[in-house]
Design goal:
Helix content: 40-55%
CATH class: Alpha Beta
Shape: globular
Number of domains: 1
Radius of gyration: 13 Å
Distance between the termini: 23 Å
CATH superfamily: RelE-like
Strand content: 25-35%
Length: 97
């Protein structure tokens, strides 16, 4: 299992989305956070299961929410580049690479 490192932008996206979902309905933000944790856990255990989208960057879909986790595997680390809504322009996260 790889250790997970959230990049600054990915952490900000994650927190903003969790807050937004919590404001929509009490408890929904916590459900979103749980789904993100589950996706990160899966990615850290089996990074090769995620689809390669660009060079060494992989994408894993988050269950129940329209989000993807974009990451790179670096030695013993899973470096998360973005926790990104599926309808946002992908150029935004690609600028981080």
């Amino acid at each position: 299992m790889l250790s997970v490192l959230l990049g600054r932008a990915a952490r900000a996206e994650y927190l903003a989305a969790a807050l937004r979902y919590e404001q929509l309905r009490t408890g929904l933000g916590a459900q979103f956070a749980a789904e993100i944790r589950q996706a990160l856990e899966l990615a850290s255990e089996f990074p090769e299961r995620a689809r390669i989208v660009e060079a060494d960057i992989r994408r894993l879909k988050v269950h129940r929410f329209p989000y993807h986790v974009y990451f790179r595997k670096r030695r013993n680390w899973l470096v998360v580049i973005a926790i990104f809504h599926s309808r946002r322009n992908p150029r935004v996260w690609r600028r981080r690479t």
